[in-house]
Specification:
Layout (H helix, E strand, L loop, with lengths): L7 E9 L4 H15 L4 E4 L2 E2 L3 E2 L5 H11 L3 E4 L13 H9 L12 H19 L5 E2 L8 H10 L3 E3 L3 E4 L5 E4 L2 E2 L6 H14 L7 E6 L7 H14 L4 E3 L3 H9 L1
Parallel strand pairs: 1-2, 1-11, 1-12, 2-5, 5-6, 6-7, 10-11
Antiparallel strand pairs: 3-4, 7-8, 8-9
């Protein structure tokens, strides 16, 4: 008899970098209270070109310890900043309205995207001593070049706003919106708080994803919302690792 896969809640910390070390500590403690070691960290090798992760540094040592404790390490771009002049109106719209200049992989060609993925992967795997769990583009924004590079890189898992997929074969492993918060403007913060409140009370997909960012620590209302949302969604879900989705897919054939 084939049993349906369990309902899961995936927790992730974005923009993991020496630049945000104290904020990452705060978010880790908050998520670990609910998920233990079942947390994903999305690591930026050199955030905005100003905070390189150096082999042998104290922060690199911390990444290795977190990885050894069971935290999944994802590559999260290279510098996180979008330096491309976008030609299409649709790409310009996404670059200007879906992120504040941080859609690094939205406009890269396949060669440059592949180079950044390879270099970042080598750094994180050298620092942690383990393979990365996958790749997530900054701001969850992928251009054609990024998708082509991912297909060649065989790097593991990937996700965007709406789904998680196996980057090696394109197989979709879960379809669900990611719950995240924004503090850039009062309007965006109010909207993100409202979305999280709705997610706590309405029927939601089997797999739910919750992503937090360093800037979340600057707003007490967001921190309260994060805790409330995790508590609500974990009542009927297992806090899980992203790689558990691969086992679910294998179980379902």
């Amino acid at each position: 008899m084939t049993y349906p896969p369990p309902r899961r809640l995936l927790l992730s910390i974005h923009d993991v970098s020496p630049r945000h070390e104290s904020e990452i500590d705060q978010l880790y403690d908050q998520l670990a209270d609910n998920g233990g070691d079942k947390i994903a960290m999305l690591v930026v090798p050199n955030f905005w070109g100003r905070a390189p992760i150096e082999r042998g540094s104290p922060f690199a040592t911390r990444l290795r310890r977190w990885s050894e404790a069971g935290v999944e390490m994802f590559l999260h771009g290279s510098i996180h900043r979008d330096d491309v002049r976008h030609r299409s109106r649709f790409a310009r719209f996404k670059a200007n309205h879906m992120t504040a200049g941080e859609g690094e992989f939205l406009g890269l060609d396949a060669a440059e995207a592949g180079r950044r993925i390879a270099d970042g992967r080598a750094l994180i795997e050298d620092v942690t001593g383990r393979p990365v769990a996958g790749f997530v583009a900054p701001a969850w924004l992928y251009g054609r070049g990024a998708h082509e590079a991912l297909a060649s890189a065989r790097i593991g898992l990937a996700e965007d706003h709406w789904k998680v997929w196996d980057a090696m074969d394109g197989r979709v492993l879960a379809r669900s919106p990611v719950i995240t918060w924004a503090s850039r403007t009062p309007g965006r913060m109010a909207s993100s708080l409202a979305v999280a409140a709705v997610a706590r009370t309405v029927p939601t997909p089997r797999v739910m994803r919750l992503a937090v960012h360093p800037d979340d620590t600057s707003e007490a209302a967001i921190l309260r919302s994060i805790s409330s949302t995790i508590a609500a969604l974990s009542r009927n879900r297992m806090v899980s690792r992203y790689t558990d989705l691969i086992e679910d897919a294998a179980r379902m054939g």
